[in-house]
Design brief:
With 267 residues, the protein is α/β, with parallel strands linked by helices. It has 2 domains: 5-124, Rossmann fold, CATH 3.40.50.20; 132-266, 3-Layer(aba) Sandwich (Cytidine Deaminase, domain 2). The chain has 10 helices and 13 strands. It has helices at 14-24, 36-42, 57-66, 91-98, 105-118, 126-129, 147-165, 188-199, 224-232, 250-259, and strands at residues 5-9, 29-33, 49-51, 71-75, 122-123, 138-139, 171-175, 178-182, 204-207, 221-222, 237-240, 246-247, 263-266. Helix 8 runs parallel beside helix 9 and helix 9 packs parallel to helix 10. Residues 5-133 form the LpxI N-terminal domain.
Length: 267
């Protein structure tokens, strides 16, 4: 008998994509989510969905143990701002947080992964699970970047990699060789919204991985909401790091880029 995969599902479409993929392959899974709307969405595809409080680490582990889970995967975004909204932490979660040097993404996620491994679970690589969703280098849209956009992409990629190395964020918005917005706790789409308001029009968005990115969690990702946000703020180009950035629902993303005349490249 195949052991079920334990999925920790964050917000967004990625968790639903994985659930549908596993269902199509006939593989069992047990899902834990912290978000009400995510539970409602995923419950359409599987009945093994548990919603728990964000700080209930021990409950998550016990659900997986009782279900016979051997491997755990993360998919989707858990909004870190929730940590500042007074969630109720159990003793296991409090112990994890107490031993952290700070509340940066890497520190939190590595501590969570280590806790799962301590309990005997394997933690799956997102790149292995979603390998078809990481495009290689090349033009992904019909429209190619113009000369000015290419210059902003070359400049912006260097800036984005520098910011990512500091574990601040993985998205940078550039216009005319100037950084107009940097992702922090707000996330990709809100950074594009903010940068677009500042740039007015013609902004270029860059999405990259961190140096030594841990493929088990928080790989850089863009999706349909990303492109719709770019269209709304009149941004004109999106460049992602090839082979390291996950594109959720590529056909819909490319179609929307073409509709909005956005140049989309992997570099």
């Amino acid at each position: 008998m195949v052991a079920p995969l334990g999925l920790i599902a964050g917000k967004g479409e990625l968790a639903s994509i994985l659930v549908r993929k596993l269902n199509a392959d006939g593989l069992p899974l047990v899902v834990v989510t912290f978000d009400k709307s995510t539970k409602e969405t995923i419950s359409k595809d599987t009945k093994m969905v548990h919603r728990v409080g964000l700080g209930q680490a021990d409950k998550v582990i016990k659900i997986f143990q009782k279900s016979g889970v051997e491997e755990v995967a993360f998919a989707g975004k858990v909004d870190k701002r929730a940590l500042f909204e007074n969630p109720v932490f159990d003793l296991r979660a409090l112990s994890l947080l107490k031993n952290l040097d700070g509340l940066n993404d890497d520190a939190i996620m590595k501590a969570i992964v280590a806790e799962f491994e301590k309990e005997g679970f394997r933690v799956a690589s997102q790149i292995e699970m979603f390998k078809d969703l990481f495009p290689g280098p090349g033009l992904l849209s019909k429209r190619a970047p113009g000369k000015k956009e290419r210059a902003d992409i070359e400049f912006g990629m260097k800036m984005a990699k520098g910011i990512a190395a500091l574990d601040i964020g993985q998205t940078v918005i550039v216009r005319d060789l100037a950084v107009v917005a940097v992702e922090a706790i707000d996330g990709t789409d809100e950074t594009i919204e903010r940068g677009g308001r500042i740039a007015k029009k013609g902004a270029v968005a860059l999405k990259v991985s961190k140096p030594e990115q841990d493929p088990r969690f928080d790989v850089p990702a863009v999706g349909l909401n990303t492109i719709e946000t770019m269209i709304r703020v009149k941004a004109t180009a999106l460049a992602i790091e090839a082979n390291k950035t996950l594109v959720i629902d590529m056909p819909a993303v490319v179609k929307t880029c073409d509709r909005g005349k956005i140049a989309f490249v992997a570099v």
